[in-house]
Amino acid sequence: MASSPIYQKLTALLNERGAEVEKWFADQYALSIPHYNVSVDVRHSGYKIAPVDTNLFPAGFNLLQGDSRTRAVEETKKYFRRYLENVKDVVLIPENHTRNLYYLENVYSLHSILKDAGLNVRIGGLAVTEKTELQTQSGKTITVEPLSREGSVLYVGADKKFIPEIVVMNNDLSSGSPDILKNIDPMILPGIGFGWYRRRKTEHFEVYNQLVQRFSQQFNFDPWLISTSFFRCGEINFKDRTGIECVAITVDKAIHALKQKYAEHGITGEPYVFVKANSGTYGMGIMTARSGQDVIEINKKDRNKMNVIKEGTQNTDVIIQEGVPTVDTIDGKVAEPMLYLIGGTPVGCNYRVNQNRDAFSNLNSEGMTFKSACDADNETQDADSVGSSCPVLGFIARLAALAATQECYEPRWDI
Question: What is the mean pLDDT of residues 204-211?
Fold first, then answer.
């Protein structure tokens, strides 16, 4: 994996000009504060490596074990010392779907990371009215308490004795911005405007691609090798086929442009795209296409899958994004790296592995498992072999996390 052409190019750049790269990142962060936590999904095709999803409300902190978890705690300490000095009292607000026991493992782990960083942490639920104890998949217990407010003061717990100074959101706000968080005293991480009711993937990747252009000009690097092209179609209803023609035409446009790029870079194979919901995560509202005809011929079952995403939200807006086939495998199964960052610094890397999918597919789907990639105590030879690739993966993830800080969204409270 680490011997692919793109890995060789990036490794050479980081080895030869690493100090300059670090100064470039430092100069960028002088203009913006990093998000507290971010996860980045990366695809590596051999000729290209690029982020394909940047999540500001990441799940999967339970995947951080050993050295990765230690780094997460240390970077949390650094983040609060640098940006939130003297803050001690924090409320963590998770998703409402408390029946997902694996997600609750993530909540437990994120809570414990914050706690081990020296913070007083309580878990506050947007949908609970009384103190509720929940069991994670492994049998751990988390306590979720109700939220209330008086004026701009937010309280956690029925006794109203805990007044948080910071709100850490692990709820992606797909269905809207809750009134209880409007104009409150504590700072919210990330800002309410970054919820998926407002944030759009096309806006993120536009900022990312502009950032990569600036980086590449300074470091004489081909930006196409570390980015993806994309288009947008809105006003779509997959169920009744409204706007499908726009998607089909745009897919053909994207494929045509990619064929030219493939020829320019001497790449064999046929290009393809992902048609994805322009907001939201959880691998919902995603299909692959190699031509506009694939969209026109989408069957009723797949149209229904594309029509509704998380919490029953209708998918009316899509990003048509360049597909990056993965060459990464773990134990012979296709895989893609996922990186976790605290304050813009990578702390852990895991591979999403899916035995039911091929190199061109969305791997965030039924059949996926996870394998640690960056820590020294990996269990498989394949996972060990990618350990040296983590600086390259970390560089790509840092670019994506930096781009996320430069997105600009005003919160809306009418949704």
Answer: 98
Name the 3-class secondary structure at 328: coil
Does the pTM of the predicted model rise above 0.85?
Answer: yes
3-state secondary structure of 269: coil
Q: Tokens 């960028």 sit at which residue?
A: 28
- Local structure of residue 308 (DSSP, 8 states): B
Closest Cα to residue 191, out of 409, 414, 413, 415? Answer: 409
Give me the residue spans of the domains in the chain.
5-60+199-406, 63-194
Q: What is the mean pLDDT of residues 24-30?
A: 95
Within 95-157, strands assigned E span 120-125, 132-135, 141-150, 153-156
Contact 178, 184 (CB under 8 A): no
Nearest to 304 by CA among 240, 248, 233: 240
Q: For residue 186, how many other CB atoms are within 10 A of its CB?
A: 19
pLDDT tens sequence across 47-104: 999 999 999 999 999 999 999 999 999 999 999 999 999 999 999 999 997 789 999 9
| Alpha carbons 70 and 341: distance in angstroms, whole number | 13
pLDDT band at 411 (very low <50, low <70, confident <90, very high): low
Determine the pLDDT at residue 413.
Answer: 54
C-alpha 325/C-alpha 246 separation (Å) is 25
Burial class of residue 3 (count of CB atoms within 10 Å of its CB; 0-12, 13-18, 19+): exposed
Is the domain spanning 63-194 CATH 3.40.50.11280? The answer is yes
Which of these, 240, 252, 313, lies nearest to 278 by C-alpha position? 313
Q: What is the pLDDT of residue 311?
A: 65
Tokens of 70: 């230690």
Q: What is the pLDDT of residue 305?
A: 82
C-alpha span between 349 and 338 (Å, rounded):
6
CA 1 – CA 384 distance, rounded (Å): 11
In terms of Cα–Cα distance, which of 6, 8, 3, 14 is closest to 219? 14
Q: With contact defined as beta carbons under 8 Å apart, do 36 and 87 qualify?
A: no
